[in-house]
Amino acid sequence: MPSPGPPRRSRLAPLSPADCDRFAVHSRTHEPVPHIRVKNRGGGGNKVIRVTCDGVERPDRTIPLLSDRVEHYAVVEIGG
């Protein structure tokens, strides 16, 4: 049986109006659907400054798309 290989990853580049402090994204392209919250930390920019998945910081700022039948939660922080 072949090994499954590394998990697929998603990299977000969200655009948010300056007066929007947070919103949610539900990607339906993967099962289970990852729950993604985007928080705008201010500063007028949309640069991704931090990504956490299930409470663990992701230095590569990507969201792993795991097919383990477990719901996963990600937070993407943006700002200027």
Quick structural overview:
0% of the residues lie in helices and 41% in strands.
Question: Can you write the helix and strand succession as a string?
Answer: EEEEEEE
In spatial order, strands of the major sheet run 2-3-7-4-5
Largest sheet: number of strands, sense, barrel closure: 5 strands, mixed
**Alpha-carbon distance between the two ends:** 47 Å
Low-confidence stretches: none
Structural class: mainly beta
Global shape: elongated
Arithmetic mean of pLDDT: 84
What is the overall number of helices? 0
Question: What is the fold-level CATH name, i.e. the topology?
Answer: Maltose phosphorylase, domain 3
Number of strands: 7
Supply the number of structural domains. 1
For the record, the CATH class is Mainly Beta
Rg, Cα atoms, Å: 14 Å
What does this 3D model show about the protein?
The structure is a single chain. With 80 residues, this protein is mainly beta. It has one domain (8-79): Maltose phosphorylase, domain 3 (Sandwich), CATH 2.60.420.10. The protein contains no helices and seven strands. It has strands at 8-10, 22-26, 35-40, 47-53, 56-57, 63-65, 73-79. The termini are far apart.
